[in-house]
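EI: anyone free to look at a 127-residue chain?
SC: sure, send it
EI:
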Amino acid sequence: QVQLVESGGGLVQAGGSLRLSCAASGRTFSSYAMGWFRQAPGKAREFVAAISWSGGITMYADSVKGRFTISRDNAKNTVYLQMNSLRPEDTAVYFCAANPTSNNVWVGSRSFMYDYWGQGTQVTVSS
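SC: here you go
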């Protein structure tokens, strides 16, 4: 079992930056592949970024590629999402998710692939 707590959301102007954090409980964080997803009002949850438990493999949605960076610090049981050049369409609740896996290069872009979810943090980008 792992518990995930997101932080770092807020209100920012278009073109600005935010860094989201997801702190995980549990001793085996380093064996969890992690993902970030988001959900805007009235829309389905969508994939944003993912990182393997080794940190060596990352994957991004086309809509955020080149603007967002996912990273992790296994010593701190934390995964990050650095978001630059934010746009109003990035406004959503952002969730982190964890998938326990023995595959150190696994990353996934579908929400059903992840077993554990945080409660989410709101990101609002004003124009």
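EI: The mean pLDDT is 95.
SC: 👍
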